[in-house]
Amino acid sequence: MENPVHLLLIAVIQDQDLETATKALQGIGASLTYLSSAGGFLGRRNATLLIGLPVAKEQEALKALHTACRQRIEYMTLPLEGSPMPMPAPVPVTVGGATVFALPVERFEQI
Fold it and tell me: CA 12, CA 49: separation in Å to the nearest integer?
């Protein structure tokens, strides 16, 4: 297979970063759509972006996502193990950012 001309980036981001990420990606001319999704670990609302773009714009799109999707520290409460009373202990968890998959596109058509 020869080198692809287009890519499909699949980016899983936090729902609160959706508007900023969408504007940043549209600013570089990327075609995109989003699907509502939920995280498996924390069960929080996410957005999965499907981003179509030429291979030449991949780094520009990754930079836009890096700027728009910030990592944050949130606290989860977990019960203390071995405690006679179930007192929750707050545990810091890093959330946010973006998880991005890049897939080559053999054929791209706008109808």
Answer: 6
- What is the distance between the alpha carbons of residues 37 and 12, in angstroms, rounded to a whole number? 8
Tokens of 14: 């936090």
- Dump pLDDT digits (tens) for 25-48: 999 999 899 999 887 666 678 999
Distance CA 108, CA 80 (A): 53
Based on its alpha-carbon atoms, the radius of gyration of the chain, rounded to whole angstroms, reads 18
Q: Any idea which fold 6-104 has?
A: Alpha-Beta Plaits (3.30.70)
**How far apart are alpha carbons 67 and 38 in whole angstroms?**
22
The DSSP call for residue 2 is P
**Tens-digit pLDDT profile for residues 70-98:** 888 888 776 666 666 666 778 888 888 89
- Indicate yes or no: pTM above 0.70: yes
Domain ranges for the chain: 6-104
In the DSSP assignment, the letter for residue 85 is S
* Cβ–Cβ < 8 Å for 69, 59: no
